Amino acid sequence: MLCYLLPVLLAVQALAVLEVQVPDLPVVALYGMEATLNCSFSHAAPFNLSAVSVFWQLTDTKRTVHSYWGGQDQLEDQGESFANRTSLYASQLGAGNASLLLKGVRVADEGSYTCFVRVETHGSASLLLQVAAPYSKPLVTLAPDSNLRPGEEVALTCVAHGGYPEVDVLWQDGHGRNLTDNVTTSLVANEEGLFNVRSVLTVALEPNSTYSCRLANPLLGEEGHASVTITGQNMVFPPVALWVTVGLAVCLLGLLIALAAVCHRKIKESCEEARAAKELEEAKELEEESKTGVGR
Ligand SMILES: *[C@@H]1O[C@H](CO)[C@@H](O)[C@H](O)[C@H]1NC(C)=O
Ligand SMILES: *[C@@H]1O[C@H](CO)[C@@H](O)[C@H](O)[C@H]1NC(C)=O
Ligand SMILES: *[C@@H]1O[C@H](CO)[C@@H](O)[C@H](O)[C@H]1NC(C)=O
Ligand SMILES: *[C@@H]1O[C@H](CO)[C@@H](O)[C@H](O)[C@H]1NC(C)=O
Ligand SMILES: *[C@@H]1O[C@H](CO)[C@@H](O)[C@H](O)[C@H]1NC(C)=O
Ligand SMILES: *[C@@H]1O[C@H](CO)[C@@H](O)[C@H](O)[C@H]1NC(C)=O
Ligand SMILES: *[C@@H]1O[C@H](CO)[C@@H](O)[C@H](O)[C@H]1NC(C)=O
User: Which residues cross the membrane (predicted)?
Assistant: First the structure.
């Protein structure tokens, strides 16, 4: 008996309920912007606005977001965090549009909202609000005191801030290959609930390598990316030691050249002296010979 009656009972109840429609998919609102939470109801007969009641509330806590009845907004019991941020489209209410305009969207606004409407009969429906904030352009840096010697391990850090929700950080090498090992990513929320992300990749350096950091926001998709390229040029011996070595080598070479020049002159001088002495002797001998010759 009940089995036959139940569908009839349900059908009767359905007739008594006002049909209220909200989006099935979550509504994505941009942080700091305004969002319209759509809610529409269909009422066959024309109605007097003063006979319409609209209640928007948080589904979980039943906290009042916005109320309207008796032909005007009723905000005495409105939740404090929504003060001065909500309104209905009054001129659209007569056409069955009970949508809520929410201004200055905050991270804390995220959640489920119920739209409750009464015109003779009543009905309600709930929708999900999701908040999204784009991250700043990421910045990739190399630890400043790192030794850029091939094979050495270095830490590359990628930072971005002020985004929501939690971002996925993907590191790739120059060939677009995913680097998932030796990556540490941490997120910290600021007082507005927005995240700052910091991801550290530790790699063994190879010459001519590029590392890029890509951010993917689950709600906004691919956001920014940044990369760092380590060319062969950065990768030198420890620079101070190199310049000291080059300097010393130049000094030594100069010294050797100077020494060689001095030696060369000395040798030449002594040779000339010897030759001069010899010539003098020969001249003397010649003179003596001529003297003897004359004496003879
Ligand atoms: C709200 O409803 C209007 C009209 O049906 C539609 O154009 C708009 O895309 C809806 N907005 C959202 C956020 O669902
Ligand atoms: C309700 O009216 C507002 C303002 O005209 C509009 O933006 C919104 O899309 C309307 N919503 C629906 C469900 O028609
Ligand atoms: C709407 O209701 C109010 C109060 O009940 C009444 O004064 C007004 O004349 C009505 N307006 C219409 C168009 O029926
Ligand atoms: C809302 O606006 C009124 C009047 O402009 C102001 O006095 C009040 O402080 C505001 N409340 C909040 C929470 O901003
Ligand atoms: C890299 O990772 C991303 C995200 O996890 C994925 O979509 C992509 O297919 C991966 N690419 C390769 C080459 O594995
Ligand atoms: C990760 O680090 C370990 C230890 O430092 C190293 O042996 C390994 O090769 C690294 N993995 C990658 C993919 O670089
Ligand atoms: C590094 O890259 C430059 C330019 O892309 C190329 O000319 C050079 O041969 C590369 N060196 C090595 C060691 O791969």
Answer: 240-262
The domain 16-132 is classified under which CATH number: 3.30.930.10, 1.10.3720.10, 2.60.40.10, 3.90.1150.10? Answer: 2.60.40.10
Distance CA 25, CA 76 (A): 31
Indicate if ligand 3 lies below 6 Å from the C-beta of 50: yes
* Residue 77 in this model has a pLDDT that exceeds 80: yes
Cβ-based neighbours of 81, under 8 Å, separated by 6 or more: 106, 108
pLDDT digits (tens, 9 = 90+) for 39-76: 999 987 788 889 999 999 999 999 999 999 999 999 99
User: Using one digit for the tens of pLDDT, what is the confidence trace for 100-124?
Assistant: 999 999 999 999 999 999 999 999 9
Residue nearest to atom 11 of ligand 7 (CA): 208
| Atom of ligand 3 minimally distant from the CA of 48 | 1
Write the CATH number of the domain with boundaries 139-234: 2.60.40.10
Tell which atom from ligand 7 comes closest to the C-alpha of 231: 1
